[in-house]
Write a structure and sequence with these properties.
five-stranded antiparallel sheet; 31% helix; seven-stranded antiparallel sheet
């Protein structure tokens, strides 16, 4: 376990240290048992918050890394801290809103609470507590030309880099929004920050994402909100109030445990036209399993044993496990279309490579009215 070294920076709710013994290019981010609101004007000690915040942030950053959103998280350290890439923080908050609420309503009179933004609305705010984090326009962010000296050289926040951060902001929101939908919980809005990696000069997601970072409404009901807004709306927090807020934060962390458990109750059933298709089908199965999805391989011929093929497909559909059928058959690759016409589940036709693929594939393209099958000719499209 890494030990904190020299103190690099201390904020309202976290402390950043060098790592002892030294670990080049990395820092230790330790959460504090403190909750604040109103740019720090309101602040309370909340025992246990550090553990919940660290747990929440670690899960989210780890998950985002897994789905391709590179960020500063490296690994968990202890229950209050994690190891991260050392970054020069860009003093901007990137906010994404799905529903209108909070400060947006104050700045945009006439908009009713709950107004739906489609696509989500993106906003940027300059981090300045003394001036209450003023909103910056796109043009202001671009014209600021913020600069950071890294070990790779000078990094200037150009228009292209601003566009990259905005695109990532929207993508991150939509990834987490879909994750929360699995718990029947509406991600109303959220804020994130970016930093410039001191070693690589890359712009990456950084800082913290925890229950201070978003609004969450279970079942889409504001009255059931579980986020920091509960604390914001309390005039003077009592000990009982702080226990309620911490319990809400623990509820969020527990739900994230469920979301990120990767317990996927689904499968891809790969039907092969013959045993000669096994090598290619195994490659498809490998891609499917890389997502934590079960892959089942079976050999059935739609031409030679049609009735038996459909009987087996019906058995897979009858057991209640969400299923996608993948048909792997060469020559007259009618396996996919035959399945598609006789099952409820989706069917993907994935004929193996062949120098005659342009001739064979017509069996899956020219179909009777009302019949449809998705055709993929490269396993990497999975």
């Amino acid at each position: 376990m890494a030990q904190p070294g020299k103190l690099l920076n201390e904020g309202k709710t976290k402390i950043i240290y060098e790592i002892n013994p030294d670990r080049a290019g990395h820092v230790l981010i330790s959460s504090k048992d403190r909750i604040t609101a109103g740019d720090g004007a309101k602040s309370d000690e909340m025992k246990g918050k550090a553990v919940v915040s660290n747990r929440t942030a670690s899960m989210i950053f780890k998950y985002l890394n897994e789905v391709g959103i590179y960020n500063h998280f490296v690994e968990a350290n202890d229950d209050r801290s994690f190891i991260a890439r050392r970054c020069h923080m860009i003093p901007l908050e990137f906010v994404t809103r799905r529903l209108a609420t909070g400060s947006f309503l104050k700045r945009n009179l006439g908009v009713h609470e709950g107004f739906v933004f489609a696509p989500p609305k993106l906003e940027t705010f300059f981090k300045d507590d003394a001036n209450h984090d003023p909103q910056w326009s796109y043009e202001q962010v671009v014209c600021a030309k913020l600069q950071y000296q890294t070990k790779k050289g000078l990094v200037v926040i150009t228009k292209d880099k601003v566009n990259l951060m905005l695109e990532l902001t929207g993508t991150i929101f939509e990834i987490l929004e879909r994750a929360w939908r699995s718990q029947d919980c509406t991600l109303v809005d959220m804020k994130i920050e970016f930093g410039v990696d001191d070693e690589t000069g890359e712009i990456i997601l950084a800082d913290m994402i925890d229950s201070d970072s978003w609004r969450l409404w279970p079942h889409g009901d504001r009255k059931q909100m579980k986020d920091k807004q509960v604390y914001r709306e309390i005039a003077k927090a009592t000990a009982e109030d702080l226990v309620k807020v911490k319990t809400n934060f623990e509820w969020i962390a527990d739900r994230l445990d469920e979301i990120f458990a990767h317990k996927i109750n689904a499968r891809a059933v790969i039907f092969m036209g013959s045993a000669s298709d096994l090598e290619y089908a195994e490659k498809i199965a490998k891609e499917v399993r890389s997502f934590g999805i079960q892959a089942v391989l079976q050999v059935f011929s739609a031409h030679k044993t049609t009735a038996y093929t459909l009987e087996q497909a019906a058995e897979f559909e009858a057991d209640g496990v969400p299923t996608v059928f993948v048909a792997v058959a060469g020559r007259s690759n009618g396996l996919g279309p035959v399945l598609s016409g006789n099952v409820v589940s989706p069917v993907i036709n994935c004929p193996p490579p062949s120098d005659r693929i342009t001739e064979d594939v017509w069996s899956s393209l020219r179909l009777p009215t009302g019949k449809l099958v998705l055709n993929l000719i490269r396993k990497r499209n999975f």
